TrEMBL record:
Residue stretches making up the ABC transmembrane type-1 domain: 23-303
Keyword terms of this UniProt record: ATP-binding, Membrane, Nucleotide-binding, Transmembrane, Transmembrane helix
ABC transporter domain ranges (all copies): 357-587
Name of the protein: Thiol reductant ABC exporter subunit CydC
Highest rank taxon of the organism: Bacteria
CDD domains: ABCC_MRP_Like (cd03228)
Source species taxonomy: Bacteria, Bacillati, Actinomycetota, Actinomycetes, Micrococcales
A GO molecular-function descriptor: ABC-type transporter activity
Length: 588
């Protein structure tokens, strides 16, 4: 997977010609109407002062009205067409970034700051709309109108045309230079600063309990204030520069009008042009300079969009680290492994068909964080899990139990041989493996939604009765009833439920998803020792229903009656399995 460069992101932000062309044409019509309005008005006022028969003025009167209406209407339509084209493009960019992110989830994103990622996803992608709306379209429209308008002035009086063009070139160059000196840094810093502010706010909100407990909420809030002030200062610097550039262009408009009039005066004196035509020479440069003022604004917007495009391009690392499982296209599934063989029984049927799992000499490492590799967390694991078997994986803290769980669900790639029903897992799409093997994590993620939503995402077709039944299986039926049923809120990251209840909710959704194999990672880690045995007993009975295979991960012993075998893991190693045998000693 190659990293999109900043240039590629910018190119991607430009809508296809067929979508952008209407906006460009409407922009040309709107800017041309502005120039024509002033030309027509100037001509009309001076010609009217000559008091000709009204008939001589009527075309110009209609012209003034038409151009005034046209300017506003074309501008309105241009905005609609431009935004439509640009927003469609943004949707494609946003889903593109998301798709590139997927292969990294979850273990490749552990070190990514969520707030910053959110800022890149939302703010920076939004900024890319500037490429079409404030850069490409205004530049092309302004370019066309400027050439036509200057050519028109040139036709009336070449000297005025030359004076006007010269003034505009100098004016635009001066405005660009001013902006470059005063705001180039600000334009590039805006997007990263916005990301840092958002990351600080997200961190603050997510960790508010720890911050309050350590009396550190104020200093965290002060940090947010500091970022906010820096962002405001930077935005102010940029706005000042934009204001300065606009002032330069306003001054240039006056100078250009004077220069055009001065250059046209001899032509008027010669009688080669009429008084009304001279008025056009004197006043039209004001409207033309207004069109030219779009150029410095577009260049500043281009710099700002460039900074955002860089952040979007960098949002996802260039290559998927070898420690993570790569996605495999369906077409690359091994011959003979039909979808039926690789998928669980259809949800809702209650039937599960556990596969035979066999690991030999499996090793694994976590992806490097900030370029620092962590070293192997697993060095040699042999493990068998027969259909319907309940195996305890036991080992001290840090022995590699969670790492092995992540290998089993293919969050981590691992080395050695990991076969599911005889097929190497590396040859299967990780998503398919995850449809057969479900992980109930040590710290399950609980959504800040009601109980129903926390279960439904595992099987969105489940009825309320099915949800209540599964809550009953994990021992939460009474509790749910007391809390008001499936509408009960569970709080941000399960703040309104106990650790043990969170674990049960997580198991309930794993049961709903009907994984044929369940991996339970320390399901009683958050339950006090007195209750742990009873809770584990209940959870194991629920998990092992319908003939599921269960791998129970624990750093302590469990009641032998709830498991069939024990596999010991120590410093990333299990006892090697004898050829053709199971890799563990029987419990009973
Ligand atoms: N996301 C991660 N990134 C880098 N290293 C990690 C990550 N998670 C765990 N490790 C490291 O991998 C090794 C094995 O950790 P693992 O979590 O698999 O142990 P465990 O047996 O599950 O421990 P516990 O019982 O405390 O949960 C440890 O050295 C740990 O520091």
């Amino acid at each position: 997977m190659s990293e999109p460069t900043t240039r590629a992101v910018l190119r991607q932000a430009v809508p296809p010609v067929r979508r952008l062309l209407p906006a460009i044409l409407l922009g040309v019509l709107s800017a041309a109407s502005s120039v024509a309005l002033l030309a027509c008005s100037a001509w009309l006022i001076v010609r009217a002062a000559e008091q000709p028969p009204i008939l001589y003025l009527s075309v110009a009167v209609v012209g003034v009205r038409a151009f005034a209406l046209g300017r506003a209407s074309f501008r309105y339509l241009e905005r609609i067409a431009g935004h439509d084209a640009s927003f469609r493009q943004l949707a494609a960019i946003r889903s593109g970034v998301y798709e590139r992110l997927l292969p990294f989830a979850p273990d490749g994103l552990a070190a990514t700051r969520r707030g910053d990622l959110l800022a890149r996803f939302v703010g920076d992608v939004d900024d890319l709309q500037m490429v079409a709306l404030r850069v490409v379209q205004p530049l092309v429209s302004a370019g066309v109108v400027l050439v036509l308008a200057i050519a028109g002035v040139w036709l009336i009086a070449p000297a005025s045309g030359a004076a006007l063009a010269g003034c505009l070139v100098v004016g635009v160059a001066a405005a660009l230079a001013l902006q470059r000196v005063a705001a180039r840094r600000a334009e590039r810093e805006l997007a990263p600063l916005r990301g840092r502010l958002q990351a600080a706010i997200v961190d603050h909100l997510q960790a508010i309990d720890v911050l309050v407990a350590f009396d550190a909420a104020d200093s965290s809030a002060r940090r947010i204030d500091e970022f906010g002030e820096r962002l405001a200062r930077t935005a102010r610097r940029r706005s000042l520069a934009a204001g300065g550039a606009a002032a330069v262009m306003a001054a240039i408009a006056g100078i250009a009008a004077a220069a055009s009039a001065a250059a046209g005066a001899p032509v008027l004196a010669d009688g080669r042009i009429t008084g009304p035509a001279f008025a056009v020479l004197a006043l039209v440069p004001l409207a033309i300079a207004e069109v030219a003022a779009a150029v410095p604004v577009a260049v500043a917007a281009a710099r700002q969009a460039g900074a955002s495009a860089r952040r979007v391009a960098e949002a996802v690392p260039a290559v998927v680290p070898p420690e993570l499982s790569a996605m495999i296209a369906a077409s690359e599934a091994p011959a003979g492994a039909t979808p039926d063989e690789m998928d669980p029984a259809a949800p809702g049927t209650g039937g599960v068909r556990p596969p035979t799992i066999r690991l030999r000499g499996v090793g694994a490492a976590w992806p490097a964080v900030n370029g620092i590799a962590a070293g192997a967390a697993l060095s040699h694991v042999d493990l068998d899990l027969a259909p319907g078997e309940r195996v305890l994986l036991r080992g001290a803290s840090g022995a590699g139990k969670t790492t092995l769980a992540h290998v089993l669900v293919r969050f981590l790639a691992g080395t050695g041989s990991y076969r599911i029903d005889g097929v190497e897992a590396a040859e299967l799409d990780p998503a398919r493996v995850r449809r057969r093997i479900g992980l109930v994590e040590q710290r399950p993620w609980i959504f800040d939604e009601d109980l129903r939503q926390n279960l439904l995402f595992a099987r969105d077709t489940a009825s309320d009765d099915e949800l209540l039944a599964v809550l009953g299986q994990v021992g939460l039926a009474d509790w749910a009833r007391e809390r008001g049923g499936l509408d009960a809120p569970v709080g941000e990251r399960g703040a309104l439920v106990s650790g043990g209840q969170a674990q049960r909710i997580a198991l309930a959704r794993a049961l709903l998803a009907e994984f044929p194999v369940l991996v339970l990672d320390e399901p009683t880690a958050n339950v006090d020792a007195a209750q742990a045995a009873a809770v584990l007993d209940e959870l194991m009975r629920a998990a092992a229903r319908d003939g599921r295979s269960v791998l129970l991960i624990s750093h302590v012993d469990v009641d032998p009656s709830i498991i069939d075998r024990v596999v010991e893991i120590d410093a990333g190693r299990t006892a090697p399995a004898a050829p053709g045998s199971r890799a563990a000693r029987p419990v009973r």
